[in-house]
Design a protein that fits this description.
Length: 363
């Protein structure tokens, strides 16, 4: 019996039947990829918008041109910014007021909210309420802000690959110019009172107008006893968990700086993913600063996204897992002597993030 005859027999057919792959149980489809490459660099003008469009950035946090000394943009000013961005195929997904920045309080022109100075803080909060309403009328869905007294703390720069320099924080090397800021001593209770006072007056307006309010963590965390007399309550994961419960609202959440969150962990390469899951499953992540560090709490370098301790391939999969739908933005990129405005470093990050998103979409 030759091979062809053998295969024609019932015995051979039975053998083949046992070897035929059986249909497997269908795997659950992967969640859709909803996140977008984003950006938050300024200014929002023709030159910079052309630069962003060149590198495939289509969604940004924009900064309107505000005339005079108002602390809010008008609807017309917001629409003018949106129309300008639209010329280059760019959408304004977020904006920011001209105060409540990540600034050092002694240099802040409008410190009343963080210093608990009334009636000045009430006037500043009223300006933010107007800004929220104007964003709703213009069609901008989100506002990012900070609640900062100490600003962004760093102790210097460390040489990196090539001619790059990495921003560095070592709490052991920190020697502030003054023991206290003009805020004086601000313990945890005082800081929470200021935050709560603000949220109680702002988030209801955000609810009415369906504007997501995205607060940035305090960068970096400091020792429990504080730094320059200030306890940074938004510089720990537990503090951020408490923050999102002060107002139960779909419009109250975080400008989730993955770099800052990593800085506040002892072992970010392991811990960061569950932190993303915690806030992501609760739909409290409204923006992501997608940047990497080397090190951890009290001692770190800010590095390029492909060379830090956090696995960005794994991280972006976790953002997809939790259904994160908004922007992934580079932030705090390394410096280089011949890279004015860090445009080259940012361009590298845009391409890296865009590639990750496209790879995830094709998987």
């Amino acid at each position: 019996m030759n091979r062809r005859q053998f295969l024609a027999t019932g015995g051979a057919a039975g053998v083949l039947a046992t070897q035929t792959p059986q249909p497997s149980i269908a795997e659950a489809p992967a969640p859709p990829v909803l996140m977008k490459l984003g950006d938050q660099t300024a200014p929002t003008n023709d030159i910079h918008l052309k630069y962003l469009a060149r590198y495939g950035v289509r969604n940004i946090c924009g900064y309107p041109e505000i005339k005079g000394d108002r602390l809010y943009a008008t609807v017309d000013e917001l629409k003018a910014m949106m129309d300008l961005a639209g010329k280059y195929g760019i959408t304004i997904d977020c904006t920011a007021p001209p105060f409540l920045e990540s600034s050092f309080i002694d240099n802040e022109k409008h410190p009343a909210i963080m210093l608990a100075q009334s009636p000045e803080r009430d006037r500043d909060i009223e300006s933010l309420q107007i800004f929220i309403r104007n964003c709703a009328q213009a069609g901008i869905p989100s506002i990012k802000y900070n609640m900062s007294i100490l600003g962004v703390l760093r102790t210097g720069r460390t040489p990196g690959r090539g001619d790059a320099m990495y921003h560095t924080w070592k709490v052991a090397d920190a020697h502030p110019a003054t023991p206290l800021t003009k805020a004086g001593h601000v313990d945890a209770d005082a800081f929470w009172e200021r935050i709560t006072y603000f949220l109680d007056r702002v988030i209801p307006v955000a609810n009415e107008n369906k504007i997501r309010m995205a607060c940035h963590p305090q960068d970096p965390g400091v020792p429990p006893e504080g730094y320059q007399g200030v306890n940074r309550v938004l510089g720990t994961i537990d503090g951020l968990k408490h923050f999102i419960t002060i107002q139960e609202s779909a419009y109250h959440g975080l400008n989730f700086c993955q770099g800052t969150i990593s800085e506040n962990l002892r072992n970010p390469s392991v811990e960061i993913f569950d932190v993303i899951r915690y806030f992501g499953t609760r739909k409290k992540i409204f923006n992501v600063h997608f940047r990497n560090i080397r090190g951890g709490r009290d001692n770190f370098l800010e590095v390029y996204p492909d060379e830090g301790d956090v696995d960005f391939v794994k991280a972006i999969k976790v953002y997809r897992e939790v259904g994160y739908p908004y922007m992934l933005m580079p932030d705090h990129v390394p410096l280089a002597v011949n890279d004015t405005g860090s445009l080259q470093s940012f361009a590298f990050c845009y391409g890296y993030i865009r590639g990750l998103i496209q790879s995830l979409s094709a998987a």
